[in-house]
Backbone:
């Protein structure tokens, strides 16, 4: 969270001049400017030696700011009376800046009662009775003293924003050479040892006295490392912060050499560099150049392909105006200034021009994005960035259309099938198709067939898109096609999802008689776009004829046979059962018990980057450091914004294995699992790993419902990329929670860290997700916020459940 520092008479000559001249309008505009530069809060200090009416001035100013600026305030004063007067004027809760225990601690003891009375936090300076803390050990010691003193006033941990203090690196004095390193260490210590409290910094102090161009770089690099250390808020001019990825590597190195005191010449080298270069250079490799002299069409196209949002609306309008000018009679004044009026006076002409811009510029740009994705030149997150840019372009274009639906290339009803809670694939399809000119009616997830049919008829849909993740729910696709046959819907069906393939879809399409309207397997969102483009083109009949001909000659593969009733002698020899710490007692862990940073040590980064974030192929070859940086940023964002609400439940039970059946003893009655046996290799079955008298553990974990709401919110705001990254991290965090829990179970059972496996339902060894109902009976996972659909899938989506096998020979196998 960025706290803007410019509305402060102690550090800004401009702010002080405005206060002395009673320029309230200027001060309000100064606050607005900071918000526009992405400051989240505004620090307000109006104290001057020239005025004696600080309280009255503060009272008037915060009233104006509260009414006119949409940002919370940080009240900065040394006078408790000024602070209380400001607090009671503000509709909401400000932050106090600041408290400490300097001298006799009078400042702390005068302001702590206000914090308690009004329930507000305060920036808490690491200043104790002996003065400012300089080393990390001193800083954490003072922070703990402040924290403990606050308990006398019933202050809670969240009310402390510890400013661990940083000192300038420009003096060259040995006493301060390691001060930045000590500050970073102190941030980490506070986050680790004072749980629930926050950290902040008056960050620009670190560069005070350096050349102005060097200050931006040092501040930005120091902020980057402070955030990685756990910094929650920063007091700075937001406009001066540069993303580290956009700073030239040699400048980052100079700044890091100084911050971490890597050698004796770090300060002189940095000053020499910036004195000689006279300014900031940005790494050219990170910059995409757009030539302002290009015509509007070319600029629009370039922005979408290169994911440049800023300026897209003006270029779309310019493209439309260009087309209108081409249509106007020669004797008319053809200036762009006059044509803006013409757009409103001649809606038909504006509409025609807008459709031209869509079909000739915007859609071809998105087609190039899709082609590059298909060729492996673009990763999916970049495609979503282009889609966000396209969304802004279409929003501007729609202002000039007579009817919004006039731009639609076709109508698609889209949903995740009944019983299925997974929707990331479905959401991608919606994004890609809607940004390529189609009207997409998204029904959400777990949609009954009757609702799908109703919507198709309501909007006269040109096609329907069905998504499913698991084999069990993909059966709904076959049921829908059979329903469509009986009702003569004649609606093409597009099917996608991890559980299906072309053979499965061909089988559905060819069952009894060929479904002549078409049932198409779409492996990716761009396959769906390709099929829709064919269905909505003049080539539709030829496309369907070719599809029917191909399907007619397709032969189904013979299915293998498994004799489920056959008793197979297992080659697995049971081992002695370990002794659990408790039997049939559920262990529940709530968010307060779970450190996400500890959990993320168990996260499979390759799975996150490649599978969940889609970073693969030629387009991803240079993304190593950037991907790692993105991962760190998202972890901090999740923690700082409370996006995950992790919960864990597990328990141990006595069990008895016999052939394919595993009987589990429970106070709620015995539960019997019947696991399938493989027809391949060793003919394995999960039950083989349990003896007649044995121990089994069951576990379930979730990242909570909050993240699903946030993903929906981001999608509704057209922040597709953020939603995609957050979803991927949530999925992999659930897996990390499961792995961490499995490790805890191993430790409690006293077995080796690599011994045994956990099997999750829906995977080959135990495909029947309906058995989740049996697990829920045993561990009552609903009490930990996890529910089941009728098809046995877990809600929230980012959750997993597993049976934990302790046998050292356990392995994964296919049926």
Residues:
């Amino acid at each position: 969270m960025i706290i803007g520092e410019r509305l402060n008479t102690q550090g800004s000559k401009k702010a002080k001049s405005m206060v002395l001249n009673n320029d309230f309008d200027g001060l309000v505009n100064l606050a607005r400017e900071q918000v526009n530069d992405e400051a989240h809060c505004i620090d307000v200090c109006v104290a001057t030696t020239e005025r004696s009416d600080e309280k009255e001035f503060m009272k008037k100013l915060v009233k104006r700011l509260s009414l006119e600026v949409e940002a919370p305030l940080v009240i900065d004063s040394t006078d408790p009376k000024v602070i209380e007067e400001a607090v009671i004027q503000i509709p909401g809760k400000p932050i106090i800046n600041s408290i400490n225990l300097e001298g006799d601690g009078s400042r702390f003891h005068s302001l702590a009662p206000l914090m308690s009375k009004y329930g507000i936090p305060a920036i808490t300076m690491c200043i104790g009775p002996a003065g400012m803390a300089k080393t990390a050990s001193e800083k954490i010691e003072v922070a703990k003293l402040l924290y403990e003193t606050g308990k006398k006033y019933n202050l809670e941990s969240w009310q402390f924003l510890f400013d661990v203090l940083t000192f300038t690196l420009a003096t060259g004095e040995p006493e301060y050479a390691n001060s930045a390193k000590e500050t970073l260490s102190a941030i980490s210590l506070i986050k680790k040892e004072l749980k629930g409290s926050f950290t902040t910094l008056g960050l620009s102090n670190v560069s005070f006295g350096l050349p102005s161009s060097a200050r931006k770089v040092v501040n930005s690099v120091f902020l980057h490392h402070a955030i990685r250390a756990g910094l929650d808020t920063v007091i700075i001019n937001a406009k001066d912060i540069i993303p580290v990825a956009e700073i030239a590597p040699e400048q980052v190195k100079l700044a890091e050499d100084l911050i971490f005191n890597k050698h004796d010449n770090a300060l002189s080298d940095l000053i020499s560099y910036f004195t000689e270069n006279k300014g900031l250079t940005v790494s050219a490799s990170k910059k995409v150049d757009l030539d302002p002299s290009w015509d509007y069409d070319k600029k629009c196209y370039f922005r979408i392909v290169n994911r440049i949002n800023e300026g897209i609306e003006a270029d779309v309008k310019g493209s439309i105006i260009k087309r209108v000018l081409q249509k106007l009679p020669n004797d008319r004044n053809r200036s762009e200034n006059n044509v803006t009026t013409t757009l409103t006076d001649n809606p038909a002409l504006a509409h025609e021009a807008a459709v031209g811009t869509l079909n000739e510029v915007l859609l071809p740009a998105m087609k190039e994005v899709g082609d590059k994705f298909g060729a492996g030149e673009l990763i999916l997150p970049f495609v979503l960035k282009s889609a966000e840019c396209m969304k802004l372009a279409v929003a501007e274009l729609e202002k000039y259309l007579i009817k919004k639906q006039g731009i639609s290339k076709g109508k698609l009803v889209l949903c995740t099938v009944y019983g299925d809670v997974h929707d990331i694939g479905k959401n991608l399809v919606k994004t890609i198709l809607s940004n390529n000119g189609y009207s997409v009616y998204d029904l959400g997830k777990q949609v009954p067939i009757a609702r799908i049919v109703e919507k198709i008829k309501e909007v006269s849909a040109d096609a329907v898109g069905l998504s499913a993740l698991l084999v069990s729910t993909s059966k709904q696709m076959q049921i829908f096609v059979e329903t469509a046959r009986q009702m003569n819907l004649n609606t093409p069906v597009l099917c996608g999802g991890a559980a299906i393939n072309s053979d499965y879809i061909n089988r559905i399409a060819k069952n009894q008689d060929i479904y002549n309207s078409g049932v198409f397997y779409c492996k990716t969102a761009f396959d769906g776009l390709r099929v829709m483009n064919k269905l909505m083109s003049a080539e539709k009949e030829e496309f369907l004829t070719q599809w029917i001909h191909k399907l007619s000659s397709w032969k189904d593969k013979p299915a293998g046979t498994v004799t489920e009733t056959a008793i197979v002698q297992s080659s697995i020899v049971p081992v002695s059962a370990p002794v659990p710490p408790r039997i049939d007692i559920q262990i529940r862990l709530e968010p307060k018990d779970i450190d996400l940073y500890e959990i993320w040590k168990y996260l499979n980064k390759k799975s996150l980057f490649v599978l969940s974030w889609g970073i693969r192929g030629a387009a991803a070859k240079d993304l190593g450091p950037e991907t790692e940086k993105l991962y760190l940023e998202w972890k901090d964002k999740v923690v700082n914004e409370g996006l995950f609400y992790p919960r864990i439940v597990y328990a141990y039970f006595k069990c008895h294995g016999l052939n394919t059946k595993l009987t589990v003893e429970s106070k709620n009655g015995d539960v019997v699992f019947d696991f399938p046996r493989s027809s391949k290799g060793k003919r394995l079955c999960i039950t083989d790993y349990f003896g007649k008298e044995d121990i089994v553990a069951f576990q379930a974990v979730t990242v909570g419902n909050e993240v699903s709401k946030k993903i929906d919110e981001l999608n509704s705001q057209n922040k597709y990329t953020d939603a995609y990254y957050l979803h991927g991290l949530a999925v992999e965090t659930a897996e990390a929670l499961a792995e961490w829990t499995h490790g805890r179970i191993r430790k409690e059972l006293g077995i080796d860290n690599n011994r045994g496996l956990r099997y999750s339902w829906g995977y080959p060894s135990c495909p029947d997700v309906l058995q989740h109902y049996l697990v829920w009976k045993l561990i009552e996972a609903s009490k930990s916020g996890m529910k089941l659909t009728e098809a046995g899938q877990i809600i929230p989506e980012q959750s997993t459940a597993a049976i934990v096998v302790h046998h050292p020979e356990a392995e994964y196998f296919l049926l």
Notes: Residues 281-287, 560-565 have pLDDT under 50 and may be disordered. Residues 141 and 441 are 58 Å apart (CA to CA). DSSP finds 27 helices and 24 strands in the chain.
